[in-house]
Amino acid sequence: PPLHKAGSMPSSPHVLQVWRLAGWLGSGKIDGIPLDVVSSSFPSLANVYTAVGAHPKVQEWMAAHPNSYPQ
Predict the structure, then answer these.
(1) Is 53 exposed, middle or buried (0-12, 13-18, 19+ CB in 10 A)?
(2) Are the CB atoms for 28 and 35 separated by under 8 Å?
(3) pLDDT tens per residue across all 71 residues of the chain
């Protein structure tokens, strides 16, 4: 089954793990992995990453931990 319905926010706690993994993979901190690896190779994952990152609770968490999530 799909991770989430189109247009809805995934509710599994694992989606936060996927969000962090996608962020790390596209962070430029891993030698040999380009910044656009997620968006260019996994567009559906990039959409989930964007949706999770835009969620108000995730935004609140990121604001409370600015050293971990630089702008």
Answers:
(1) middle
(2) yes
(3) 444 555 555 567 788 899 999 999 999 999 999 999 999 999 999 998 999 999 998 899 999 998 887 66
- Which helix (DSSP H) or strand (DSSP E) does residue 7 occupy? none
Burial class of residue 38 (count of CB atoms within 10 Å of its CB; 0-12, 13-18, 19+): buried
Distance CA 39, CA 12 (A): 22
Sequence-separated (6 or more) residues with CB below 8 Å from residue 12: 3
Helices (H), 26-67: 37-41, 43-54, 56-64
